[in-house]
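ugh ok fine here u go
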Amino acid sequence: MAQKIDLLEIVKQAKGRGYFDFADFPGLILSFAQLKELNALLERKRIPFGTVSGVTALTQQEALQIVNSLRKGTPPSADVSTFSVGRKNLIDRLNKDLEAVTQASPRIRFMNADYGCGKTHALYLLREIAFKQEFVVSIVTLNQDSCPIHDFMAMYHRIMWNLRTEEERSKPAIESVLDRWLDAIRQSGEDRARQIIRMLPDDFKNALHAYYESTSPLKPDEEKRLLVLRYLSGETIYLRELRQIGVQRHIDSSNALSMLGYMASLFRNLRYHGICILFDEAESIHSFARGEHQDQAYSNLFQIVRQSQSTSHCLFLYATTPSFFDNYSYYWPSQHRINDNDIFELERLESPELRRLASNLCKIYSTAYGIEVPEDVEQVMRKISEASVSERIGDFTRRCIAILDERGK
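structure:
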């Protein structure tokens, strides 16, 4: 007789991890019927079957894209959970926070990660978890050239244009969601559309109405449609242009986060649970050459911390290095010290985890090039895993791919 097993609970736990792997359920034995039912449940929830089921779930093109990205030392746009290892505590904590945000309890978190620990990769892993929990996600890389943290509206603009959904990762969600809203009008009528936006401020309602008008098949107006997108993304627009779409006030640093909250409300009426914003600090604030930029950067971050408490259905996570926690208190009011419970600690991967990572990379490489990686090559990679604990994780993955390129084909 097959043992009694709660498949829904298994699927719930797998959804939290972003994948299903039998290794996470030691002692689990399924009958053929149970395995078939589990497969159906995982497919319905779009959960990959295995960390590197992962690998069986990947197409050759997806596997090749992962290999090419890792060869350059950049996180791939494909699901990074197909080769990720460890990070269970990080994933569990994020899942709890996302559940709270779904219930209208906003969150602001910090990730403390020393250089080389895999901070950027971890953020992409968290993006996958948020996607699985039906959030719209924006990863924003902060640096002085393209998105300086001392320029609040530059950050807001990048947040908006980097918003993505699981279904359309290459298209800004600001367009995808507005198109979904238009579909709601066509399918359910204008009464349903008005119900969706009833709690939004007048400027936002008028902008949405202008977007609707601009996409009329009888009289399309691409210039007006783009004007709405520019307004919602926080671009500087002349007042006379705003009047064309019925808007009275610009989006600026005083109302940008409120606008983000309104956007989250719109998303929630269109099936999503909210917005997850992940900041990746590419340059330490203390590396800024100009002192006033440091001051403004800390001030902007403090503004996000304060206003995020009233930005319902939004989660903010700021990934930084230990130097931030050593210095921020000089710039923030003394009563606003960051609580230890709000900090995610990202530790270096240990040798067993690096061995698993090397094994995962071998399997993905096999899928990418349609070959079997020789056993002696896998042995070499397992060996270097023992001596690579102090190595940057990006350097380790590049070295693994280089070994596969040289000896694996």
